[in-house]
Each structure stands twice: as C-alpha cells, then as structure tokens.
What does this fold into?
Amino acid sequence: MTTTANASDRVVIFDTTLRDGEQCPGASMTLEEKLEVAELLEEMGVDVIEAGFPIASVGDFESVQEIARRAKKSIIAGLARAIPGDIARAGEAVRVAQRGRIHTFVSTSPIHLEHQMRKSQEQVLDIIAATVAQARNLVDDVEWSAMDATRTPLDYLARCVEAAIKAGATTINLPDTVGYATPEEYGHMFRTMIEKVPNADRVIFSTHCHDDLGLAVANSLAGVASGARQIECTINGLGERAGNAALEEVVMALRTRGDVLPYATGVEATMLTRASKLVSAVTSFPVQYNKAIVGRNAFAHESGIHQDGMLKNATTYEIMTPASVGVTKTSLVMGKHSGRAAFRDKLRELGYQLGENAFEDAFNGFKALADRKKHVYDEDIEALVDQEIALASD
Ligand code: KIV
Ligand code: ZN
It folds into this structure.
C-alpha cells in the first residue's frame, strides 16, 4: 500500500452502537443509558463514538450534544444525510465536543439512485461536493460515506470518492450497507480506491459492514488487510437487520491473529465483557449463548475430551484466555459428555475425596443423571455423592 495514513498499523475503532445499533428495532435507549454506554466506550479506548443522528429527533440531538459535551478523549460523531439542514444540525450537536466529527452520507449505487433517490450520477456528484464542503466549513473532521458502496460500479465509486476528498473529507467510509459483499470483493474495492483515486493517501479509509450473510467481521478484516484503517462496528454486533460487525470480535481477531493481521487497536479488551453486558441490559437484547467472545458459552466446555485437555493445559481448546476479555474463568460444564477427569476435578472443587470404588459408583450415577437432565448443577452432584457416601457407610 502506498498511502501514508493507510500504511499505519493502527486501526481506528469507530463504535456506532448508539446510532446504527440503536436503529435495530426495539433497541432504543434513554439519554441516561446512552450516556452510560458512551462513558464506558470512552473508558475502553474507543477512538470514535457515533453518538446518534441529530436531525432524527430532539432526543437524538440532545443526546449527541450531551455526549459531545462530556467526552474527553474520544471523537464524537453525529450522522447527517446529504441535506444542508441535517449537516447544520449535526454540526451544532458536535460543536461542543473537544473533538467533533460530522459524518455525512449519500447513496451511490444504481439501485438506490434509481429507486430511492431518483437522481442521476452527475447530480449525486454535485451533492457530494456541496455537502462535504458545507460540513468542512463547520468542523475539521468530516467523514463521508458512500451508502451501498458494494453495489456501486467501481469507476463511478472512484469519482464519488475523489469528489468527497476534493471537497475536504478526512475519512472515506465504504459501507456494505446490505451485507452483500464477500471478503475478496470487499478487499478489492478498497485496493482499487486507494490505488486509483488521486490524493487517497490524505484520508483514512473505513469499513462499515452489515451481517446479512454472516460476513461482517470477515469483510471488515479484509478491508483492513487491503488498506482501510478504520472499522465501524457495534457492541454485540447490534444493528439494522442481522446487525453490524461486532466490536468485540474485530478487536479480539486483531489481537489474537496479529501474526497474519498485524494491526493494533486502542481498545482495552478486558472491558469487552462489561460493555457487552451493559449494552445487552440497556437494550434488553439478549446475547446469544454461543456468541463469539462474549456469549456465555464462549469459554465453556462440556465434552469429556475437551475438558480433559483443558485440565491438562488450557491452550488445548482455548485460543485466548477468558481473562483477556474480562471473564473470570473458564467453565467446565458438567453434562452427559463430561468424562472422569472433569468429574474428579468437580468433586475436588466441591470438597469430596472418594476412594476408587465410591468414585466409580458416583461417576456412573452422575452419567445416568446427566442422561435424564439437561443441566446438572453442583447441588445435583452433591446430593448424588452424599447418597453414595451414606450407602457405603450402611
Ligand atoms: O449501512 C450504512 O450504509 C450506514 C451509513 C449511514 C453509513 O449505516
Ligand atoms: Zn449501517
């Protein structure tokens, strides 16, 4: 890659939980809740917090403004359509921030131009030039997004990006708005823009991926490998339809696979679990049990083979430590797949010391119970072992 900004190995983490995440049906948050989430994101080291869409409602405007007023380190962004009134309102909301950003966007794909905007390609180019210039007159930090970039012909997309850079954009975001791209296509788009567009080295390129095909994180990483240096993401992958790229997955993929993805973020990963729990609580959106990094099973093992390996050395079945994401410990879940090693370990944890015969009887009793019961709790095991001990002493 030939660019200055994009040649850096630091990836800017842009969190949009409070904007794209909140657009998810049923996930709206109160002002107090948004302030709490923003405070945690900033403490966690998130570089840019997209606090909302100021023109959308008075409540949105006020929350963006209040978050902007309180932020000390993070850049606070307000979203605006390519409409002068939107941009003015976003500018007013972020003006109080120590570091404010206007994020303005317009659709560029033929599908959107024909069916939604009813504008020609030339008209959209004029709109980009005028609206980015307006935003740049209000703040120094302007992000421009090509909505539905991944369904836009690359030659036209390059003209749009060029117009935005010329008008003063400092970050260029190329969203996979409908979650349609594959990693290869998404990476190719960034490489093409960075190589072809004049002055591409003066801006930071950004990814913004939706998860309709379950590819949001893979696409974001492909974008970075191809020169993007900002990833837009949300806590728990909250967002429109199937959601956005999950911040915790992006951060841990970059940390865990630095050997093939040598890019750093400023995020304190040990706070990821706390952030996930907070966002789940304030939005009332449960986190799926098997969700990567923050799901309750992410560090749980039930299979006997896996439990045996874990008891010998955790690296046998864990590629990152629970502590690295803020989880206190691995859990060996007792169930019908558990073996003798895990059962012995559990008995030790519960304070039992059985002789070999009693242990075998207790283990057989446990296996029979686990076949009948979905969850075997510590209390079940205690009852079973106490029964064995009583029988043995009769
Ligand atoms: O998905 C998208 O295209 C967006 C833009 C507003 C950036 O959320
Ligand atoms: Zn989006």
